[in-house]
Amino acid sequence: MAMVLACIIYYGIIPHRKTPTAYVLGWGVIIPVSAYIPYLQVEYLDSYNRFVNLAAIFLMGCIGVRCLSAMYIPTTPNYIEHSLTKYMIHCSTLGLYQWDDTTQSIAKSNIRDTFVLLLEILFFFMVSSVLVSWMIVTEFKPFESTVRLNQFDLWDGQIFHPHHLLNSYLHIWVLYSTFKIVFEAVGLVENLKGYATDRVFYNPLTQSSSVTEFWNVRWNRLIHTLLKYGVFKPAVTMFSPIVSVAVTFLGSGLFHDYCWQVVFYNPTSKFDPKTGECLDTTDPNYCYTPIFGRCTVFFLYVGAIMILQRPVSKLSITKWCVATLPTIVITQLLLIIHLPFVHWYGGDWMMGGFYDHLAIALFKIKRI
User: Engineering a disulfide at 230: which of 60, 68, 295, 363 sits with its beta carbon 3.0 to 4.6 angstroms away?
Assistant: First the structure.
C-alpha cells in the first residue's frame, strides 16, 4: 500500500509541486486515503491487539506526512527523487537510511555497527522488561497518586504532586525503553540486509543539554525528520520561524492523537450489535478509547517551551547551569519541566492495555 501511494506521489505530485494539481491530489486523495487505510486494516483483520494496530498505522501515517513534504519542497537528499525505485524505498520503510552522496544510494552497513545496535536493543529489552514488570503490577502508579492517567484533567493541581512527578519520570523511561526496542529493531533488520541506518533515539534521557537538542536531535528522529520536512519547512516559507515552530508542534500533536486513535481503535465485533455496548465489561481495557486532544495540548506545551528557550537561555542562572552542571543533571532538569503533563502523551499506553497486548503479541504471555 505504501509503495502504491508512493508511486502516485512520484508521478502525480512531485512533477506538479506547488500547483493546484498537487494540492488537490495530495489533500484530496493521498492524505485522506493514507489516514483511512489503517482503520480498514484493523476492522478487516478484526484486530484486538494494540501492538498489532501500531504496525497498521505507522507507515501509512508517515506516507501522509511525506505527501505534505512532496507538495511543497524537494525531498532531501534531492537525488531520491531521481528514480521511482529510490522514492518507493524512501517512502515504504520506517528505517532511517544513511544515504551515500557519492553513489547516490543507501550506504552499506558493517558488522561492527550491526552488532553494536543488536547489543543496544538487548540492553533496552532487559531494561524495559524490568520496568514494565514492576509498573504493570502497580497499575503504573508505584507511588500513590490521585491523578488519573487516562483522563484529561487540565486544571488538576495534583499533577504537580511529588508522587505524580515520580510516576511520570518512570513513565518516560518505560516509554523510551519500549520505543527504543521497537524503532531500532526496524533499523537492525535493515542492517542485516546490508543497508546502513541511523539511530532513531540518541540517548535523549541522559545526554540532552537543551530542550531543542532533546526534541530535535535525540528523541525519535524519525518523527522529527518527517515533521521537519513535512510541516516546518513548508510552514517557514509562509510564516515566521516562531509561528512555524508552533505549527509544527501542533501538527505533531494532531499526528500523535491520530496514531493513538488507531492504536486503540475497537472493531465493531467488540460491541453488541443490538445495544452497542461493550461485550466484555470485566476488562476495562477491552473497549478502551483515548481522549482526542491530550497529545495535541502536550505538544503545544512543548512547542511553547521550545519558543521560550532562546530568551531563557540568556538568563544568568541558565548560563551558570549550562557551564557548571554535568550534562546528565541538565537533562534531568529538562525532564522535570515535562513531568506534570507527560501522562497526556503516554497515559493511554499505560492504561489502555498496550503493554499487556505487547506481551501477548511477542511472547504469548497473558497477565492473570
Answer: 68
φ, ψ of residue 189 to 5 degrees: the values are -60, -45
CB 290, CB 348: distance < 8 Å: yes
Q: Domain residue spans in the chain? A: 1-92, 108-363
Q: What is the DSSP string of 80-132?
A: GGG-HHHHHHHHS--S-BPEETTTTEEPBP-HHHHHHHHHHHHHHHHHHHHHH
For the entire predicted model, the pTM comes to 0.93
pLDDT digits (tens, 9 = 90+) for 255-313: 999 999 999 999 999 998 888 899 888 888 889 999 999 999 999 999 999 999 989 98
- Residue 40, Cβ neighbours under 10 Å: how many? 12
Asked if 53 and 42 count as a contact pair (C-beta separation under 8 A), the reply is yes
The per-residue pLDDT for 367 is 64
Q: What is the 3-state secondary structure (H, E, C) of 154-192?
A: CCCHHHHCHHHHHHHHHHHHHHHHHHHHHHHHHHHHHHH
